[in-house]
Design goal:
The complex is a heterotrimer of chains A (348), B (352) and C (284). By secondary structure, chain A is α/β, with parallel strands linked by helices. Chain A is 51% helix and 15% strand. Chain A folds into three domains: 39 residues, no CATH class; 131 residues, Rossmann fold (3-Layer(aba) Sandwich); 145 residues, 3-Layer(aba) Sandwich (Rossmann fold), CATH 3.40.50. In chain A, the strands form two sheets. Chain A has a six-stranded parallel β-sheet, sandwiched between helices. The two termini of chain A are 34 Å apart. The relative contact order of chain A is 0.12. Chain B has 352 residues and is mostly helical. Chain B has one domain: Orthogonal Bundle (ABC transporter involved in vitamin B12 uptake, BtuC), CATH 1.10.3470. The N terminus and C terminus of chain B are likely disordered. Chain C has 284 residues and is α/β, with parallel strands linked by helices. Chain C is built from ten helices and twelve strands. In chain C, the strands form three sheets. Chain C has a six-stranded mixed β-sheet with strand order 6-9-10-3-11-12, with helices on both faces. In chain C, strands 2-1-4-5 form a four-stranded antiparallel β-sheet, covered by helices on one side. In chain C, a hairpin with a 2-residue loop joins β4 and β5. In chain C, α4 packs across α5, α5 packs parallel to α6 and α9 packs across α10. The longest helix of chain C has 17 residues. Chain C starts with 5 loop residues before the first strand and ends with a helix. The mean pLDDT of chain C is 81. The chains are: A alpha/beta (348), B mainly alpha (352), C alpha/beta (284). Chains in contact: A-B, B-C. At the A-B interface, α5, α11, α12 and α13 of A face α2, α3, α6, α11 and α12 of B. Chain B: Part of the binding-protein-dependent transport system for D-xylose. Probably responsible for the translocation of the substrate across the membrane.
Chain lengths: 348, 352, 284
Amino acid sequence: MSTKRTWVRTGLATMAAATLLLVSACNSGSSSSTGTDDEATTASGGGAGGVDIYVVGGKSDDPFWSRVKRGAEDAAKVAESTGGSVTWLGPQNYDNLGPDAAKLIDTAVSNGADVVVGPDWVPEAEDAAFKRVVDKGIPLFIYNSGGLEAADSVGALNYIGSDDHEAGVAGGEYLGEQGVQHVLCVNTLPGAANSEARCAGLAEGVEGSGGEAEQLPMPSSSFGNPTAVSQGIKAALLKDDTVDAVVTIGTGDADAAASAIEQAELGDRVSLGTFDLDETQLSRIKDGTQLFAIDQQPYMQGYLAVSMANSYVLYGIELPQRPLLTGPAIIDGSNVESAIAGAEAGVR
Amino acid sequence: MAPVHTSTAPASDGATVPSESRGAALGNLVRRPETGALIGTLSVFVFFAIFGGSQFLSAGGTASWLNVAAELGIIAIPVGLLMISGELDLSVGSVLASSSMTLAIVSGHWGAPVGLGILLALGLGLLTGFLNGLLVTRTGVPSFVVTLATNFGLAGLTLGLSRVITGTTSVAIDPGSPAKELFGTLLANKFEVAIFWWIGVVLVVGWMLHASRYGNWILAVGGDTVSARATGIPVPKVKIALFMGSALGAALVGVIQTLLYNSAQVANGQAFVFNSIIAVVIGGVLLTGGYGSVVGVVLGTLTFAIVQQGIYYTGWNSDWASLILGILLLAAVLMNNTFRKMALSYAPKRKA
Amino acid sequence: MSEPLLKLTDVSKSYGATAVLHDISLEVRPGEVLCLLGDNGAGKSTLIKVLSGFHEPTSGTFEVDGKPATFKSPRDAGEHGIACVHQFGGTFPLMSIGRSFFVGAEPTKGWGPLRRFDRKFAGEVAVREIRALGITRVTDGDRLVGGLSGGERQALAIGRAVYFGANVLILDEPTAALGVKEAAHVLRIIMQARQKGIAVILVTHNVTHAMAVGDHFAVLIRGTLAADFRKGERTREEITDLMAGGEAMAELEAEIEAYQREHAGQVPDPAELEQLADHQKPTA
């Protein structure tokens, strides 16, 4: 909002305390400097002191979401400097993800959100809740999952994030350039839309250069047990000696896959790649025991989504890029050093 | 030294018990409740040896299921002991994760000596087990509920502290010698050193359960707690010690995995909660307590690991692995019940 | 008459505000069978739990062999020679006979860390002791207890208590779950124990069983010792009446007769009868 209107409103506030609730608007900083303490509290307590941004996100115990949250927190500093706030809403677990996320979206609305940011993990369950947000006239941004298609169907302003299919394609094309012919896509979450899209995109990318990719699904009894995942991958590598690359859908699995390749003594034949990134991947890429990682740069998803939400509500800023992609970025031996610096800061 | 005359005359054990002939050996085997577990292990091994081909039988293939069995076994054996005493431990998943993160944070993030990190990780496990045991014996709340609560509570604590301390949920560690060699190395580049830890646990616990007097206490506590108390067995102490044992096993696997994969993840370990119970139950331990053997648990663990890993050698879609595990669990329990009934209904033919 | 092995003076037990036992005074002598009789809820099981160290009495004193004693745990009671056998023998169905026999007092061989349970010895002793009680069908100490009959399990439990030097043996409803023949066998075992000079406290509902072996009878009604008499001092009918709360019933009958006299032979209707019955309840 314009500076002029702010000043007008602040002036009114100092003249007539009775109209304070109506006029306590944009800048709690100036409001508190001119009004009494009580008035200032009313201003920010009423949620009108800045933009109250509600971000629905993942469980913060997976490494990926902790980076998204970090980005959101960093962007929150800007929102907070103009009297706004950022509230992170995450589910307790992923057992009932769709309905849980829908509830969190409704929670954001009922808590008086000025703008909502959320991932469209399970469209069937969440889209109705997203539409309720839009129907109330609250600006909505979709990020991380769903893509532009989901954003348009629920009436969101934009989509911020990467596209799992696109990321897979990028990884597949990169592998094709390296001359890889037969890729194993290790899926520790068989049936989940994003892991399936990653493997499918990977296959598409590899097929572009004449190679092929197949999926290795892991049962739930191996989940969170790197030894079971590792031994499963090793078995698949021993069983089929045409496999020349293994790609995992997450970083924990990549550690298990690295051990599997080592145990099968196939380091010369089999290259390793993974979706997502952490310090261990970076050090392996640096050592040369891992070829690459496909980074969707989660920090930027949180950071950009919150920044755009804040600047749209405050100043009406919209970007021409739709969707606003934060990835994929391929990290390999050529750019690993700068990525390591980012990881040390807890950002990459 | 002066020669000492030792009379090695056979002990004249004026046996009032007529010893049974060797011909009854097979009959005795049939009456042992572990026989079901043995049949299970042999069947799945033969099954995957046929369908898994030569790679399954190779050293690499053997390592596949042996490594998985070793880590699971280190947890399943003390969990089995606890189940024999009539209690469950559902907190092993979070104990594993917390021990793993403790080690990685202390020795990886803060750079303290690895030995200290390992001691703290194992100590945290023991403390959790102690609290589980204390809560169960003091409050009388079923261990199912107490340890379920611990599992959630500890998971939250691990996650919260990890994020506060390191800002992330996966922490890398460079263990170095000799911790790496002791806990997290691969022998012949295939076999985890955890296999020897498992063998150690089997020998120690096997001795304790089957040879020492404490084993009798554990069986008695699980069989009939009131009578066990009446004979003077310190029931709460036995249970607390067993809870500490299962938590120690889980913490040890946390240490092993952290040093093996050079990293710790907050979300690791939860699969062990049910996998350990499955292995123990396949091994013939009575879910309600009072009966079980270390041999049975070892066989149950092997069966579980062979099925879980064997499927990858068949070339079949591993989507079906969980289905096979489910069927196997049910079949094993039904078979164990049959053999247990045979053991119980047995009575000598002759009437005096 | 010999000196009492175990003497209770004014023993009371209450759980919070609820009093369960009031001023029980009893003497248990060697070579005697004391039958503890009473209806459900009369306080028999509480008394046994106090005697065997599961619960401490709220007030009152114990004397063992003339010396004052307190039992803080079952182990304490055991050290004073008091052993308790439960209805189902208190044994462990999935343990071997030898292991079950020695639970809590396992024989070991070897030294230091290699000290181990002496399975062979345990099995032999268990079988010998059980056979000594007339159970000849048991020959192998490695068999599971679950394969034994109810009477055989009682024999195992009694043999165990005797072997570990119990001189006061508390048997809680040992014949309740048994058939006629098995029950007779258990009663014979009780007589054998009695002959060895052991004091037996037999808790039972069955007057016939009590009359067959009892030397001394104590009847509990609502936590108080309603009667304490020796063999031959009361008839079977009197004992049955006592166990069924008979005295109270007799008084109720007298009340009804009085009512009929007052109301010209009219029988009181059920509601009034209930009021009469309430009126008859002893004030606790």
